[in-house]
Model the fold of this input.
Amino acid sequence: MQQAEIGLIGLGVMGSNLALNIAEKGNRIAVFNRTPARTDEFLGEAGDLAGQIIGCHTIEEFVAAIRPPRPIIIMIKAGEAVDQQMAALLPHLAKNDIMIDAGNANFRDTVARFEKLAGTDVTFIGMGVSGGEEGARHGPSIMVGGTEESWKRVEPVLTSIAAKFNDEPCVAWLGTDGAGHFVKTIHNGIEYADMQMIAEIYGILRDGLKMSAAEIGDIFGQWNKGRLNSYLIEITEKVLKATDPETGKAMVDVIVDSAGQKGTGKWSAIEAQNLAVAASGIEAAVAGRVLSSLREERIAAEKLFGLPGLPEAPKDKAAFIADLENALLAAKIAAYAQGFAVMSSASEEFNWSLPMPTIANIWRAGCIIRSQFLDEITAAFTKDPDVANLVVTPAFAAMVKETDGALRRVVAHPVLSGLPVPALASALSYFDTYRRSGNGHPLEGEPARRFRLSRLRLA
Ligand code: 6PG
Done:
């Protein structure tokens, strides 16, 4: 039997969809699941693609089915299970085989796994995959970290399954060991900030302007045709227009307003702090989720403190809604600038040489934060890959100058009325602090010195 080009362990939703995507693009794939019955079920679900898939019931059978050097994707729950799976697989592998962890791993675990395998014949790739279930099935954005040789072995398969933006595949090798998972983590941190800012704008429209979910959905639909065009704005419209079949009410009004988190946003904030990079938008988003989860405490606090009386809604509603659109754009610029600044600092700290234009490039399609905006970020970083901060690139500086007034007006309104806008307010403070020269101490004639808190970290 013809051997498979690649193997995959873990036939949960993400693993199954990734395997079907790989098979659909003409690659032969071997699959293995801890529960053999799931492998049979999966082959039954694969339809016409089953001919491209070798279902295996034992690890021995699975390994023998893959062409050496064998790339093996492990798509299981992040954490200890990955270490257990790797330990079970290792004795069956041979020189230059590659274990690929495709889950949302903490990059520090990825670095440790990479080092652990360094003394063996087997190598390791930490691979960030974004786009959820749909992306895995039809084209995710893929962020790869590992050795260049191992990347070369997997490049053709990964290129075939990745999302395409103007025919360019959204996959890249970003550096050694934890580079791919680090970039995926920061992608998620930016995703957290983006979602928090969207939620804050929704809150202003709902509580400040007393609009219904469906009316707000229409506004997001309009914005999706303009500069905010993105997957998150698109699904916000859909979510706000969805109704609960039981009550007939807007779905968003019957869902408990309490968010959880799997960890990537928190790791982004922690790593930003470790690197002494200001990432206040990501931090505000993580704190927003944490506070949202304290539902009972919030209810009790509202009883204790009451709510401030709402001031009158802005007189010119249309102008205020236009301000909200511009404010969201301005705040987004701050969040992305912060995310890229964290990656730039990490690149130096961990010797990765992370390519900023390439990262923006592969986030333009497939991933959760995909947007028109990322195409503009790609252009800005391509012109100036080493720029200190995205906000000072000519294109983004022009956008900030155009929109920061709107952000200021928008933040002022909820602050006076007691509506929480932590991420929007943090974006405004970020700009206001970043652009101040401070005490006027002259720089001329002095060597440029950057006070790096990270260098002072305690061991
Ligand atoms: C993606 C997503 C996906 C998920 C995160 C965040 O890129 O496909 O980021 O990975 O949204 O795991 O999950 P939480 O929001 O639950 O932490």
